[in-house]
Specification:
Elements: E1 6-7, H1 48-63, H2 72-79, H3 83-95, E2 99-102, E3 105-108, E4 113-116, H4 122-127, E5 133-144, H5 147-153, E6 160-170, E7 173-183, H6 190-193, H7 200-206, E8 211-222, H8 225-231, E9 238-248, E10 253-262, E11 266-269
Parallel strand pairs: 4-11
Antiparallel strand pairs: 1-5, 2-3, 5-6, 6-7, 7-10, 8-9, 9-10
Helix pairs in contact: 1-3, 2-3
Length: 280
């Protein structure tokens, strides 16, 4: 495999494409704030579909994960509304992960996967919840460092960088897409020695890397057409984008990471502490 790009054999995967902007480049400044989607207009009462959505949400709590929902007609008769109104309410609940399709029926969604915002790996986070983590290789290649990658990894523009892109799986379900960038100068044997189906952090720790800290940014985005195809999700589904630069105990960057998670399947947690010097 030395010196060559390695691609997954799955026929569902498309050829690798470069991201439209550098993987660690900050997103453009947002425009004017859009109205919050809480279902309540600035003046007046919530729209009918939103009221129905709240009622169905309460039904979901009673049924529990995996239970089959009543049909649209049954909900329409129960709440005295049209099937179109029920359909819109269920559509929004599906985007939120509260409802999932099962054949021609709708079922109550499973609890979201919880990923801690720590230096624990994806594998460690999933195993901690009793889930079976997995990865599917998309591409493993050498790239020339872009200006943003050169800054993040503290290397020269054009220097060789390893790009490892993998689908993230939880119990065989595709839940995310992750790209990791590492300097070839620091890890020259990685592309030959590392098994992409295993934990990268476990490999790096075994190689002597001691992780110390990271800067991480979280945004809500929509997946690109390529990402939609790879993850197998709806183009309308909100995604959670995490970009991170991880450093070792010497303060040297180890990796730049771009992770895209399904918004209907993930939530993130963080442990907060009082700053050492409280701000008055």
């Amino acid at each position: 495999m030395a010196g060559a790009a390695h691609r997954a054999a799955s026929a569902t995967l498309t050829p690798v494409q470069r991201p439209l902007r550098d993987p660690i480049e900050p997103a453009p400044a947002p425009g004017p704030l859009a109205a919050a989607r809480d279902g309540v207009p600035e003046h007046g009462t919530p729209p009918k579909y939103f009221q129905v959505k709240q009622k169905i949400d309460a039904v979901l709590d009673e049924l529990g994960p995996g239970a089959t929902l009543p049909t649209e007609r049954e909900f329409a008769d129960r709440f005295g509304v049209s099937r179109m109104t029920v359909r819109q309410a269920i559509r929004e609940l599906r985007l939120e992960g509260r409802v999932q399709r099962s054949g021609r029926s709708s079922v109550a969604g499973q609890p979201k996967l919880v990923q801690p915002l720590t230096l624990a790996s994806y594998t460690e986070g999933m195993r901690g919840q009793g889930r079976r983590p997995g990865r599917q290789l998309v591409v493993f290649e050498r790239l020339a460092a872009t200006p943003a990658l050169a800054t993040g990894l503290r290397t020269d523009v054009g220097a060789p960088v390893l790009h490892l892109e993998r689908l993230l799986l939880a119990d065989e379900e595709r839940v995310g897409l992750e790209s990791t960038y590492l300097a070839v100068e620091r890890f020259p044997a990685l592309i030959e020695e590392f098994d992409p189906a295993t934990s990268l952090y476990a490999y790096l720790r075994a190689a002597g890397v001691v992780f110390a800290d990271a800067d991480e940014r979280i945004e809500t985005v929509l997946a690109s057409p390529r990402e939609v195809q790879l993850i197998g999700t709806s183009p309308a589904l909100p995604m959670l984008l995490l970009t991170r630069v991880t450093r070792d105990r010497d303060g040297t960057p180890v990796e730049c990471v771009r992770s895209l998670f399904r918004g209907d399947r993930f939530s993130f947690t963080a442990h907060l502490t009082e700053p050492q010097e409280p701000v008055s």
